[in-house]
TrEMBL record:
It comes from the Bacteria. Pfam families: ALO, FAD_binding_4. Coiled coil: none annotated. It is an enzyme of class 1 (oxidoreductase). InterPro entries: ALO_C (IPR007173), FAD-bd_PCMH (IPR016166), FAD-bd_PCMH-like_sf (IPR036318), FAD-bd_PCMH_sub1 (IPR016167), FAD-bd_PCMH_sub2 (IPR016169), FAD_lactone_oxidase-like (IPR010031), Oxid_FAD_bind_N (IPR006094), Vanillyl_alc_oxidase_C-sub2 (IPR016171). Its EC number is 1.1.3.41. One of its GO terms (molecular function) is xylitol oxidase activity. Keywords: Oxidoreductase. The keyword Oxidoreductase applies. Residues 10-174 form the FAD-binding PCMH-type domain. This is Xylitol oxidase. It comes from Subtercola frigoramans.
């Protein structure tokens, strides 16, 4: 087996890739395996889904998408892509509160790593879970839901607690969004007005190279008709904190065609076609990039920006583009936004693994004073000993994993090295 992740920087070591077609078959595969890891849509940039044992994918396990308008939830298979769920919900008049930048990511895989979009009031995607069905290490099925004693452990589980087969997600009535893009937001203005900038729209993304005097682009995704967002929608022809409205649709990367990007220029449209940065019908088979991301507590945002700007000359040669987003706090034990309002500092790197990892040693050191938590699914160098102090509930997670997976079936090398520490 020589299967790779989307970015091509990880070749999975597993001897077998299992693709069960039924729940019974999946339970048998999991129950029988000695070491096993669930594989989602392969969009992580590190060995989090890798194992020397067996991999199991849910891509052949068909589950219906089932809307319950009484409880305002949608039940989906763990392997389905967010974009597919989103299109179905939109057809039926419903929406999810938020999405990540790429709609091609699987629901269970995204939840497992605390994948997030942006927005001062938007929590990560795990926060949308209303219940989850898992196949546990012994092959039995369990259903967990918010309010259960250990749910805050299950919500972001890094694949360590079982294979998620079905998820119920909270839904809301559909809404329209308009994306306005502004260019060249002066750094000094942003540092002075960061809170006002990020509260300007439902979801704000700032694209920067750190070393320049201005942030390249500010993407403001506003909910149409929502009072707080009306000003931003109207602002397509005015300046935004000194930034000027983009004349055409833009890709976050300078000079790259915007054909893959969702609609901009303040043109309203359904949430599902606006909240991701990239279109679902644009299918990236693999990516010529690596990604890293670090989440700091919001009150440290400006200091963290300054630390990164001081490293700007080192970052520049390997960087394609960075993105700054905000994420609302949640209560999940291993969530990168757990117990704190957060600012996410994202890096899309050139595909230069060694150079990126070398730089990350210094970059992570520069962000350490702000207790920066690495995105679990992206490239980072920190090991378990430096990660443990960042998560007060890690001991609870370890004892939960020991209880539900006593033979450490799901304990991959990545989990031992980065999380459990043994
Ligand atoms: C182009 C691109 C854009 C991205 N944009 C964002 C973004 O906007 N925001 C953000 O936060 N992240 C983003 N990411 C990162 C991505 O969301 C995460 O890495 C996510 O975990 C990938 O999900 P996946 O389905 O590909 O899972 P995989 O990478 O295959 O696996 C990730 C983890 O999920 C576990 N897992 C997968 N399926 C299951 C299952 N059924 N049951 C239990 N565990 C399971 C795996 O074991 C592993 O631990 C992006 C990645 C790419 C490539």
């Amino acid at each position: 087996m020589s299967e790779k992740n989307w970015a091509g920087n990880v070749t999975y070591r597993a001897g077998k890739l299992r693709r069960p077609r039924s729940l019974d078959e999946l339970q048998e595969v999991v129950g029988r395996a000695t070491t096993l890891s669930a594989l989602g849509s392969r969009h992580s940039f590190n060995r989090i889904a890798d194992t020397a044992g067996e991999l199991v994918s849910l891509d052949r396990l068909e589950r219906p998408i089932d809307i319950d308008s009484e409880t305002m939830t949608v039940r989906v298979g763990g392997g389905v892509k967010y974009g597919v769920v989103g299109q179905y919900l939109q057809q039926q008049g419903y929406a999810l509160a938020n999405l990540a930048s790429l709609p091609h990511i699987s629901v269970a895989g995204a939840i497992a790593t605390a994948t997030h979009g942006s927005g001062d009031l938007n929590q990560n995607l795990s926060a949308g879970v209303r219940s989850m069905q898992l196949v546990q290490a012994d092959g039995s099925l369990v259903e967990v839901a918010p309010g259960d004693e250990d749910f805050d452990g299950y919500a972001v589980a890094l694949g360590a607690l079982g294979v998620v087969t079905e998820v119920s997600l909270a839904i809301v009535p559909t809404f329209d969004v308009a994306t306005s893009v502004f260019e060249r937001l002066p750094w000094p203005v942003l540092l002075e007005n960061f809170d006002d900038v990020t509260r300007s729209a439902y979801s704000v993304s700032l694209f920067t190279r750190w070393s320049a005097d201005t942030v390249d682009q500010a993407w403001l995704k506003s909910r149409v008709g929502r009072r707080a967002d009306i000003n931003t929608v109207a602002q397509t022809t005015e300046t935004f904190f000194g930034a000027t409205p983009a004349r055409t649709r833009l890709h976050p990367l300078p000079g790259v065609s915007a054909a893959a990007c969702t609609e901009q220029q303040g043109i309203p449209g359904p949430w599902v076609d606006r909240l991701p940065h990239f279109r679902l019908d644009f299918t990236p088979s693999n990516g010529d990039e690596l990604q890293s991301e670090f989440l700091v507590e919001r009150r440290h945002a400006v200091e963290a920006f300054e630390a990164l700007r001081a490293l700007g000359d080192r970052i520049d040669p390997v960087l394609q583009i960075s993105e700054i987003r905000t994420v609302a706090a949640d209560t999940f034990w291993l969530s990168s936004a757990g117990d704190r309002e957060s600012v996410a500092l994202h890096f899309t790197w050139k595909p230069l693994q060694t150079e990126v990892e070398d730089l990350l040693v210094d970059l992570e050191r520069a962000l350490a004073p702000f207790d920066a938590r690495p995105h679990w699914g992206k490239v980072f160098t920190a090991q378990a000993n430096s990660i443990a102090p960042l998560y007060a509930h890690l001991p609870d997670f370890v004892s939960l994993a020991d209880r539900v997976d006593p033979n450490q079936k799901f304990r991959t090398d990545f989990l031992r090295e980065r999380v459990f520490g043994f």
